[in-house]
Design brief:
Shape: globular
Order of helices and strands: HEEEEHEHEHEHHEHEHHH
Distance between the termini: 85 Å
Number of helices: 10
Radius of gyration: 21 Å
Number of strands: 9
Helix content: 25-40%
Oligomer: single chain
Strand order of the largest sheet: 1-9-8-7-6-4-5-3-2
């Protein structure tokens, strides 16, 4: 009897071990494009910081007053800066959604501007892009009085926020969509819908752009960060869940391929077994890798000069 119980227990233990191994494989992570080099020299302890709420980042007369929260590390600086943009399908969400990222970045010594933008249906594209550009302009022009280094400003966003900040970075030198002074030196983008032309149906993207792809395919391309990737584009760190059905992981692969073709430094951190929402909440390892990326290309990097002459396909076709 004892021997039978022992064998039964062994079988159950073996099954549990196999199940655990499968789960670990399914929910692990893969880091593509990770450069060789020493481990990140993180602060020995979290940096203390101060939060300044409800800073107005929009200029007088802007269609809607844009508010942001500023997370300033203690000390004199100058600090590398991050413009942080929330997600929500361009139609919902607020600064509180990405507050955990603001706190993590500030505790690592980054000066963070957690900003807002106009939402659908009250406003449609390019209003959201223009609002994010205003946040970048505020950081570059007014941020130095809080200690930011205007030559070391990056962007960080998830989902719709990733789309907007990566698009703002890509079109900074664009004659039609760009705005002078909005250059960014590095980007972190999670769950990024980088190619809107992949959305042939549905309601979310048409509501954002105010049209369908059948009616205006050119706008779908122009509103896609992938379309504007050129040599001189700032380095990009992506993270994405393999089970993301809202923004399929093929978006991340396509964006990476475009960056690779243009010779742009980039990394892709794959979160296995996670969908669009769970990848946002279970992103701890991805954020640590993103911080290492930001350290290389923003905190310790030499000043990157803006790259002029980057034009969208729409502008170039004229």
């Amino acid at each position: 009897m004892h021997d039978m119980r022992h064998k039964a227990f062994a079988r159950h233990a073996g099954c549990l071990a196999l199940l655990l191994a499968i789960l670990l494989c399914a929910c692990g992570s893969v880091h593509l494009g990770r450069p060789e080099g020493p481990a990140r020299a993180a602060p020995s302890r979290p940096v203390a910081y101060t939060v300044i709420r409800d800073i107005v980042v929009s200029p007088p007369g802007w269609p809607q007053t844009l508010l942001a929260d500023l997370y300033r590390p203690d000390g004199q600086g100058p600090f590398p800066g991050i413009v942080l943009v929330h997600g929500g399908g361009w139609k919902r969400g607020d600064r509180g959604q990405v507050e955990k990222h603001a706190k993590r970045l500030a505790a690592d010594g980054y000066l963070v501007l957690n900003t807002t933008y106009r939402l659908v249906p009250r406003a449609i594209f390019p209003a959201q892009l223009q609002d994010v550009q205003q946040a970048v302009l505020w950081m570059r022009r007014s941020g130095p009085q809080y200690g930011v280094d205007p030559a070391r400003i990056g962007g960080f966003g998830y989902s719709a926020g990733a789309h907007l900040i990566s698009l703002a970075a890509a079109v900074a030198g664009d004659r039609e969509w760009g705005a002078e002074g909005t250059e960014l030196q590095a980007i972190v983008a999670g769950g990024n819908p980088s190619d809107l032309s992949r959305y042939e149906g549905g309601k979310l993207v048409p509501a954002f752009l105010g049209t369908t792809q059948k009616e205006n395919p050119e706008l779908f391309r122009a509103a896609s960060p992938l379309t504007h990737v050129r040599p001189g584009h700032p380095p990009v760190f992506q993270y994405h869940g393999t089970l993301d059905e809202l923004v399929p992981i093929e978006q991340a692969y396509g964006y990476k391929a475009a960056l690779d073709r243009a010779g742009v430094a980039n990394e892709l951190f794959i979160l296995r077994g996670h969908g669009h929402i769970s990848a946002f909440f279970a992103d701890g390892d991805a954020i640590e890798a993103a911080l290492a990326f930001l350290d290389r290309y923003l905190r310790h990097a030499q000043t990157r000069k803006p790259q002029p002459g980057v034009r969208s396909a729409k502008a170039a076709a004229r």
